Amino acid sequence: MSLKHTLLIFCLIFSLTASAQYQGLGSWNVVTINLPGSTEHRWGGYLEAQNRNYGLTSKFYYYEAKGGVSYNLDKNNVALLGIGRYVTYDEDDVDNGPMLEEFRFWEQFVSNQYLGRIRFEHRYRIEQRWFNTGYRNRFRYRFSSIIPFNKKKVEPGALYSILYDELFFNNKQPHFERNRVALLLGYQFSKQFAFTAGLLNQFNNTATGTNRKYYLHLNAIYNIVRK
Fold this sequence. Notes:
Layout: H1 3-19, E1 26-35, E2 43-53, E3 60-74, E4 77-88, E5 100-115, E6 118-131, E7 134-148, E8 159-169, E9 176-188, E10 193-206, E11 209-223
């Protein structure tokens, strides 16, 4: 891919970010450590930490820490069991302590399909959620497209895009809970390290009303390479 096309993609992401400023752009920061599985080494896993702010650098209100153990059924299908802790604060009164604390366990299945160099990912997740206010279930489906521009696949030196849409449902009213859409641009620096940046929009649907929030999404990714 030419430098011109690369610059156009960066301009698209940052123009979308600028257009979201009027709604108050937040920040969504992620660090991920992966132990990828394969058909040779079927067991894998990951650890991840996130924090979110209502402003780009201010009004912290949320963090999560989670991890999981995965098993590659074959080269395109992966099952995972995950566990995590999720804590929400009042962004105007963080010192008062958490408003909501959650312990979560989930089961996940990911299936990949390919169209040329484009990879389509289907992710299905069932969550069991214990709050300080009670218990809930949730069901999620995410569809992603991963497109490398200057390589045939995502490998060292590859510039790529990720576009995904994720739907959230639960077994209580309202059954449709959330929609999350993201457009990210990534670069694979080496076998171990990659970085993505872009714009994420989250729409929430609750019993008392709806709201929408835009975030600048940053994700640093470290892959543990097996010998």
